[in-house]
Amino acid sequence: MKLSQMFPSKYLQAEDLPPNQNTIVTIERVYPAAARDRGGDSEPEVKWMLKFREFRKAMSLWRTTGRSIEQVLGTDETEQWVGQQIAIYPSTYTSFGEIKPCINVDKWRPEQVQASPKAGSTLVIAGDRRPVPKVAMERFQGHLKTLGKSWEDFLRWCKINAADAYPLVWGVALDQIPAGVLPTMKVFLDAAAQPRELVDASTGEVVSPTRPNVAVAASPLPVRDPSVPDDEIPF
User: Fold this and answer.
1) How far is CA 27 from the centre of its chain?
2) With contact defined as beta carbons under 8 Å apart, do 49 and 58 qualify?
3) Please, which residues bridge with residue 103 across strands?
4) For 178, which DSSP code?
5) Could you tell me what percent of the chain has a pLDDT over 90?
6) Residues 59, 50 contacting (CB under 8 angstroms)
7) pTM of the prediction?
8) Using an 8 Å Cβ cutoff, are 54 and 43 in contact?
9) pLDDT for 64-85, tens place per residue?
10) What DSSP line would sit under 38-106, residue for residue?
11) 99 close to 144: Cβ distance less than 8 angstroms
12) What is the Cα–Cα distance from 34 to 22, expressed in whole angstroms?
C-alpha cells in the first residue's frame, strides 16, 4: 500500500490527479481557512482555499496559482472565478534543492484546446528518444524569434494540433526534448510562416490553411546512435 493511501492528505495534492494530462475542473468556491501563525512578531497569515466541483478535497490557493488563474480567466476578482472552468495538472518544483510535487494551472482555457482533426494527411513522428541536439534547438529558437513566436507559442500549437506530441514537450527541459518531435517543430515553423488566410487564385475565395494531424508512432527498433546527424534536422 502506498503511503499516500495510508496517510491521505486533507487537501488536494498532485498525486490525486491523473499523471501527464490535464484535468478540467469547475471553480465552486474561494474561501479562507484558519489563519496560520508564522511566529515572531508577524501577523497570522490567512490560508486561502480553492474548492472544485469535481473533487471532495479543496486545494490550497497560493499567490502563484492565483496569478495563473487570473491570467487564464482575465480577472483577479475571485468572485468572478466561481462557475468558471480551468485545467490543472500534476507537476513539480524545486525548493532548496529538493524536488517536490505540486499542482499547476494550464495557461489556456479548456475551450481553447481543440481536438486534432480526423481527416487529412497524417505526419508520423518516429519515436526517437535521443535528445534534440543543442545546435538544432538554438536554430529552432532563432527561427521562432524571426517569426515573432516563442516556445510558449509552440507548446500551445502542439496542444491544439499535435496532441500526441504534446506530452513529449510539455514540462520537459529543452535539452531533454526527444528528437522524434523534430518533424513537429518543422511543421510548426512552416505553419507560422504562412499567412492566417490564403486566397485561391482561381476563385478569389479566402481559405484557411489546412492543419496537419500529427501522430506519434513508436520506433520499430531501438536507436543505438545517441547523436542526431545534422542532415536529420529538418529546419
Assistant:
1) 20
2) yes
3) 90
4) B
5) 27
6) yes
7) 0.48
8) no
9) 999 999 999 999 999 999 999 9
10) --TTSPPBPPEEEEETT-SS-EE--HHHHHHHHHHHT---GGGTTT-EEEEEEEEEEETTEEEEEEEE-
11) no
12) 30
Provide the pairing of β-strand 59-60 with 48-52: antiparallel
Measured CA to CA, the distance from residue 34 to residue 217 in angstroms comes to 50
Report the C-alpha gap between 153 and 214 in whole angstroms.
Answer: 17
C-alpha span between 99 and 12 (Å, rounded): 18
Is the separation of the CB atoms in 188 and 235 below 8 Å?
Answer: no
Q: Among the residues of 94-225, which ranges form H helices? A: 134-146, 151-161, 166-169, 182-193
Cα separations in angstroms, 99 against 89, 93, 112, 165, 198: 16, 6, 31, 25, 48
Give domain limits for the chain: 3-112, 122-232
CA-nearest of 75, 76, 55 to 9 is: 55
**166-183, pLDDT tens digit by residue?**
888 888 888 888 888 888
CA distances (Å), origin 213, targets 22, 123, 188, 205: 20, 6, 12, 24
Cell numbers at 222, concatenated: 531501438
Classify the phi-psi angles of 136: left when phi > 0, otherwise alpha if psi is within -120 to 50, otherwise beta: alpha
Instruction: Give Dmax over CA atoms of the chain in angstroms.
Output: 77
